[in-house]
């Protein structure tokens, strides 16, 4: 009986050793739960940051659109009332007026702004200008010419088209899939996003 008891005690000790988790490096790693929170946060942090940056980018886009619309409306009023024509502004000077009316945010990137002014006796005489084609912005025509060459005189129908090559998607390339593209759906070669604002009106009988 003493031998059988000794055998059972010895066998039980061996089973305990086999059932006991390994105390080596792998065993300690398997039992460690200290980094679970950090790992779980790592899984969700990147998508969450992308989501937050996306919201900020869309907000900045709406802010830029509103700023550009406001600047076009303010500057175009000077054509409608004849102030710009009487001041003998050139097309380039009118563009600078658009940029200044948009505040620092637009004015600091005025080289990316393209202004097109068209006029005619009736709406049917005006064909809207395309802002970009084949990845290139449509350049302004004869910027040193008098604005009246494009805007006409009093009681004329005028279309002011302002195109802005917004450069934020250059910093965050994934935004190119969220932002507006030209009508031909070809991305701008600059990597920017196209923002467009239009003003249509008939000039007052200021003459």
Please tell me about this protein's structure.
The chain has 207 residues and is α+β, with helices and mostly antiparallel strands. The chain has one domain (35-202). The protein contains 8 helices and 5 strands. It has helices spanning 2-19, 25-31, 36-80, 83-86, 91-101, 103-107, 148-151, 168-171; strands at 113-120, 132-133, 136-137, 157-166, 193-202. The protein has a 3-stranded antiparallel beta sheet with strand order 1-4-5, covered by helices on one side. Strands 2-3 form a two-stranded antiparallel ribbon. Strand 2 and strand 3 (136-137) form a beta hairpin. Helix 3 (36-80) packs across helix 5 (91-101). The radius of gyration is 34 Å and the shape is elongated. The mean pLDDT is 82.
- Domain module count: 1
N→C terminal distance: 128 Å
- Radius of gyration, in Å, reads 34 Å
Poorly predicted ranges (pLDDT <50, ≥5 residues)? none
Question: Which key phrases capture this entry?
Answer:
207 residues, alpha+beta, three-stranded antiparallel β-sheet, two-stranded antiparallel ribbon, 8 helices, 5 strands, 15% strand, elongated
Give a brief rundown of this model.
With 207 residues, the protein is α+β, with helices and mostly antiparallel strands. It has helices at 2-19, 25-31, 36-80, 83-86, 91-101, 103-107, 148-151, 168-171, and strands spanning 113-120, 132-133, 136-137, 157-166, 193-202. The chain has one domain.
């Amino acid at each position: 009986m003493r031998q059988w008891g000794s055998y059972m005690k010895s066998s039980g000790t061996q089973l305990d050793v086999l059932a006991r988790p390994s105390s080596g490096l792998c065993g300690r790693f398997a039992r460690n739960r200290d980094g679970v929170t950090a790992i779980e946060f790592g899984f969700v942090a990147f998508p969450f940051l992308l989501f937050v940056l996306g919201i900020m980018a869309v907000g900045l886009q709406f802010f830029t659109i509103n700023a550009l619309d406001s600047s076009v409306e303010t500057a175009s009023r000077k054509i409608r009332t004849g102030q710009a024509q009487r001041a003998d502004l050139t097309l380039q000077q009118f563009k600078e007026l658009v940029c200044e009316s948009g505040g620092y945010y637009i004015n600091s990137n005025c080289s990316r702004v393209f202004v097109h002014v068209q006029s005619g006796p009736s709406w049917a005489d005006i064909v809207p200008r395309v802002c970009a084609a084949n990845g290139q912005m449509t350049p302004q025509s004869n910027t040193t010419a008098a604005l009246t060459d494009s805007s006409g005189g009093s009681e004329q129908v005028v279309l002011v088209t302002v195109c802005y090559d917004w450069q934020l998607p250059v910093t965050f390339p994934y935004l190119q899939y969220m932002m507006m593209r030209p009508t031909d759906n070809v991305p701008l070669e600059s990597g920017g996003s196209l923002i467009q604002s239009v003003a249509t009106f008939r000039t007052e009988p200021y003459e």
